[in-house]
Automatic annotation (TrEMBL):
The gene is flhB. The keyword Transmembrane applies. It comes from the Bacteria. It holds the Pfam family Bac_export_2. The keyword Ion transport does not apply. It is found in: Cell membrane. Residues 1-28 are annotated as: Disordered. The chain crosses the membrane at residues 89-111, 150-169, 189-211. Required for formation of the rod structure in the basal body of the flagellar apparatus. Together with FliI and FliH, may constitute the export apparatus of flagellin. NCBIfam families: flhB. It is a multi-pass membrane protein. InterPro entries: FlhB, T3SS_substrate_exporter, T3SS_substrate_exporter_C. This is Flagellar biosynthetic protein FlhB.
């Protein structure tokens, strides 16, 4: 399959696409923000601990330049002595080193959060493709990086020149000052220049951070087809879901039809609605074991007649039962009286013996407002 062109990727990335990118370690990164964080924190730490670092460095230099004759007589002590000097030099600088290490995590945390992505450590041999390497080298992103580098050099160079020009008279006076004053003045000048450079880099970072976020989302843009495929994957294929519903409906109807022969009565409308009821010992109220409309209602009636189940035509009650009752559940309390009247007629009919008295007759079933006629469609069938 050919690679999708950038022109087709017009849709913003979904949350799933962004989450998968984060899991792969693909998050926006700003080099300018990292430079500002590390350099700015280091300068602030140096300003805060500069006096202690200077005094410790002076003592260390005095000790390092002192002459110890025992080292000449015991050359094996030279290496431990050098290690001890190195350790004593690192101790005053330890706050600066720790501050810089902590600052390294500020930019990633601010841009995309700190996360370990094991997939990013996997070898990607596609990066060894010379063609793709040349394409990246001469891409618009590389051109933007070149422009940022030129702007960075111009800003830092301009800020540095401005600081030196402002302190030119102080620099000329340093040779006449004492060593300590000259060192203090030089350190203060360097820190001032660094702070000015941090301000310039902060201006670049304020431009670069939104740009990196925009570039990151642009790379993850999706086509309309990819969004549709993802929606199908997340929500399920509509055709499969429709088939599942159809199979479930067929299984429900099969179970329902299997229960019709054991029903006590089927209430009809007489052709649009059919509701099969069962009532027996231990049951609190009659239960709906089957119900249907149109063709399904006729099938329920035919099956009931085949198994000699009583069929009673009571249109208002049939409509009310179909609308207000649920399959495999008891009928509503407000229909108890009407259903009891139908069941009483069925039980009388079962007990009747031809030639011994008149045949029981079904009185008109009154269900009150619950038996109001249903709205109908243009063809005369009940609206559903």
């Amino acid at each position: 399959m050919s690679e999708t062109s950038k022109e087709d990727r017009t849709e913003q990335p979904s949350e799933k696409r962004l989450r998968e990118a984060r899991e792969k370690g693909q998050v926006p990164r700003s080099r300018e923000l990292g430079n500002v964080a590390v350099l700015g924190c280091a300068v602030i730490a140096l300003k805060a601990t500069g006096g202690n670092v200077g005094a410790a460095s002076r003592d260390w230099l005095r000790q390092a330049l002192s002459f110890d004759r025992t080292l000449l007589d015991s050359p094996e002590l030279l290496l431990p002595h050098a290690g001890r000097l190195l350790l004593e030099l690192m101790l005053p600088l330890l706050p600066l080193i720790l501050t810089a290490l902590v600052a390294c995590a500020i930019a990633p945390a601010a841009m995309g959060g700190l996360r370990f992505a094991g997939k990013a450590l996997a070898p990607d041999f596609a990066r060894l493709n010379p063609g793709k390497g040349l394409a990246r080298l001469y891409s618009a992103e590389s051109l933007a990086e070149l422009l940022r580098s030129l702007l960075r050099v111009a800003l830092i160079g301009g800020i540095g020149g401005w600081v030196v020009w402002r302190a030119f008279s102080a620099l000329l006076a340093m040779p006449q000052a004492s060593l300590e004053a000259s060192v203090a003045g030089g350190v203060d000048l360097a820190l001032t220049a660094l702070l000015a450079m941090v301000g310039a880099l902060a201006l670049l970072a304020a431009i670069d951070v939104p740009w990196q976020h925009h570039q990151h989302r642009s790379k993850l843009k999706m086509t309309k087809q990819e969004l549709r495929d993802e929606a199908k994957e997340m929500e399920g294929n509509p055709e499969v879901k429709a088939r599942v519903r159809q199979v479930a409906r067929q299984m429900s109807q099969r179970r329902m039809m299997d229960a019709v022969p054991a029903a006590d009565v089927v209430v009809m409308n007489p052709t649009h609605y059919a509701v099969a009821l069962k009532y027996g010992p231990g049951m609190r109220a009659p239960t709906v074991v089957a119900k249907g409309v149109d063709e399904l209602a006729l099938a329920i009636r035919a099956l009931a007649e085949q198994h000699r189940v009583a069929v009673v035509e009571a249109p208002p009650l049939a409509r009310a039962l179909y609308r207000q009752s649920q399959l495999d559940q008891e009928i509503p309390v407000k229909l108890y009286a009407a259903v009891a009247q139908v069941l009483s007629y069925v039980y009388q009919l079962r007990a009747w013996i031809p030639g011994r008295g008149p045949m029981p007759e079904m009185a008109e079933v009154d269900v009150g407002a619950d038996g109001a006629p249903d709205p109908v469609d243009g063809d005369g069938s009940p609206a559903r």
